Structure formats: structure tokens, C-alpha cells
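Obj: model holo form, ligand = EPZ.
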Amino acid sequence: KRRNFTQSLIMDKLEVFGAKKLKGSVRISGSKNAALPILAASILSNKKIILKNLPNVKDIQTMIKLLESIGSIVKYSKKKNSIIIQNKNKLKTFASYNLVKTMRAGILVLGPMLARYGNAIVSTPGGCTIGVRPIDLHLKALAKLGINYKIIDGYVHAHSKKKLKGAKIKFPKKSVGATENLIIASSMAEGTTILSNCAIEPEIKDLVNFINCIGGKIKWIGKRTLKIHGANNFKKNEYTIMPDRIEAGTYLIAAAVTEGNLKILGIDPNIIKTEINILTKLGAKIKIKNEQINIKGTNDIKNINIKTAPYPGFPTDMQGQLMVLLCKSKKRSIISEEIFENRFMHVAELNRMGAKIKTKGNKAFIEGNTNFKAAELMATDLRASVSLILAALTAKGKTTINRIYHLDRGYEQIEKKLRKLGANIRRVS
Ligand code: EPZ
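Output (holo C-alpha cells):
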């Protein structure tokens, strides 16, 4: 019998027997962070929407549960990783704390609920381990489209007297989520909206392409500027979610850190140029062929000083993984985490494995020259968890990683994929 999530939350661990060079080819799954806003945007339409290449991970299941909880009919298609969504009836405009607390992207249903129905009660996501993660940018920008809101007992209560009305909005700070919420809301607002200083992560471009594919009228008119004409009648269509660039980057580092030799399949190299350039500078040998990246690791990793930044900068979602690789360098490196306040939780665990990393404020000083030692570890957030796996893959002996439910939120079949590449990794319940 399938155990429920709460049980797996307490029980599941990973055991990794490391010091093996990874070899072979790995196919990249659909992008979690593209799929989440696209699922939220399905609220705009009452026509049939077919989504393909959804990753089968916990966050996506949670978002689907959220849609079902408001009345969407979601069917799993016979084709793997595809679903059919149809909103035949009026949807509820309530998203509960239970669903939003484990997956912050739940807040993305606020924009489409307001655009379609003029009211919504959505749980605030609260803080989370990697930082405070407020939603003020989402709310202030939605207010410019004409909504009023109050936060009562942890819920955003929002409504607008009339249909949302297009406006000129300049985001004071680049935010992926706020840009997405506003794109979705204004694609059904009356008139024209201009959004400037938008986040331009590839997942945002995928969201725009999806909305246009179901009848939206959104155009990039500058590098960070969108012009959106409100649409009313969305149409039936199907859409294939883009591949996961963070998963691809994670496997690139898996190859580099184990001195392996991998073919990464099904990823557009153009969307991970920054990562490829950095890995090349650090000594990895990378060859690109259309939608395939071949990477060969080296035992002579160079050092680097680097900052995380909004796209096209180096992604915060790859910071922990890169840190593991930099531990292998012969010289000292510095990483500045510029996006989240508390995203160094992997550091303490990596140090327990023999790394020499010190942190001061938002900077991590990585001494290098580390041969990771197997240990018993505790995973904290999604990307920290995968960083511990990367370190464990290089360590002789058995590393046990506890609390791996974070991993299941965002990496599709990670043990299976790694095993196929020669890793000795298993899940213990
Ligand atoms: C998205 O989170 C991703 N999540 C994150 O991935 C990713 O780390 C992050 O973007 C940055 O790239 C999804 O796409 C579902 P932001 P999001 O709004 O949208 C501040 C993963 O591991 N801010 O761009 O929440 C915020 O605190 C996850 O897959 C405000 O101040 O990130 C942060 O410092 C983790 N007010 C910065 O902006 C707001 O209203 C950027 O956050 C919103 C954000």
C-alpha cells in the first residue's frame, strides 16, 4: 500500500555509496518552476487545456490538488507526464493554508482568481527555510490593477469592484513570482498593461508562450518589458512545458564533481549559458550539440568568486550545487548569495563531511582541497538536499541523507536517473 506523504516525510532516507565516476546519458524532465505558474494560469480558461512534459514531482501534485480543491477537473492522460485540465463550472476562489504552506507557488493562483472572478482568499505562504519570502511585490502590483486587499489571520482577502483594469507597472525589484502573478492577472484585465523591470527567467518566457498559446495577447517589447492586452476568450489548446534548467545544471555538476562523463539530453543549452561558461572556466570540458550537452569532469577544478543574481546571472537555485564543486578546487572561492537571506543551510552538513566553508552574512568562503567523507546528514531545503547528494557521490563509504521529502518536491526520479549513470544510491523507508 502507498504510504501517505506524512509518513514518508518522517521515514524516507537516501543511502549513497560514493566515489564512483558517473557515466552515460540522462534526459532532463519538464521544469517544475515553469509548470507551477502555467498550472495556475489554467484558472483563466474554461476550455480544455492539455499540458505535456509535466515533471512528476510533489510540488506539481500539490498544485494539481490545489486546482482540484477549487473545482478544476484534472485528468491524467494515458501519455506519460501529460494532464488534461477543464474548468467546466465556476471555480471556488479559496486556496487553503494546507496546500500553500508546502509550496509557495500556491500564491500564484491569486492573480488568475482575481482576474476571472474579482475576488480571492488565498493563504499567505509564510516564511520558509531559505528566507523571509514576502509577497508585498505581488500585492502592491495587483493593487495597481484595481484590487483592494487585507491580510486577515494569514490569508490575503482580495477583491475588486470592477473587472481588473490594465495599468503601467514598474516592479521596484525583480521577482519571479510577482512577475508571473501579474502576467497572469493582466492577461485577462481590461485594456493594456505594461509591466517593466520584469524578471526574465526562461520559466517566465514559458508562461508567456503558454498564455499566448491559449489565446492571450502578450508581447515582449523590451528586454524586461511586457505589453499585455487583456483577453476574454481563451481557447482550447495543448502546450509542452520547457525542460528543467536547474535539473540540467545539477547533472552538469554531478558530472564535474565525480570526474565523470555525461551526456545531458533534452535541454536547450542557450538557457544555461551562464552555468556552462562557469563550469568551463572551472575546468570541465563541455561540448554542445543542438539539444545535448556533453560534459567531462577534471581533477583540476579552478576557483572562482561569484554572486547569485536574477536571470541571466548565476541562479540561486544552483548555489549549493556549485559550492560542492568548489570544495574540490585547490584554491579558495567565495560565493555571495544575493537573492535569499538564509540559503546556506547545506554548509553545516557539508562541513560535517569534511568541507572547510565559513559564512559571514551573505558570503560563503570555501577553502577547497576537500575530500568529502561519508556521514549521516539531514536535508533542509530542495536544492540543499541535492547538494548533499552531490557531495555524497564523491565520498567513499555510506552517506545517509535523512528528511529527503524536500528532494521529492522538485527532482523527478533522481535515484533512478543517478543509478542509470552508475551511482550506488537507494531509498530506505
Ligand atoms: C522563484 O521563487 C523560484 N520558485 C525559486 O525556486 C527561485 O529560487 C526564485 O524564484 C529565484 O530565482 C518558483 O519558481 C516556484 P522571487 P520566488 O520572487 O518567485 C524578494 C526552487 O528551489 N521578494 O524572484 O518566490 C524575495 O524575498 C525555488 O525551485 C520580495 O521582497 O522568488 C527574494 O529575496 C526556491 N517581495 C527576491 O525578491 C515579494 O513580494 C526574489 O524572489 C516577492 C519577492
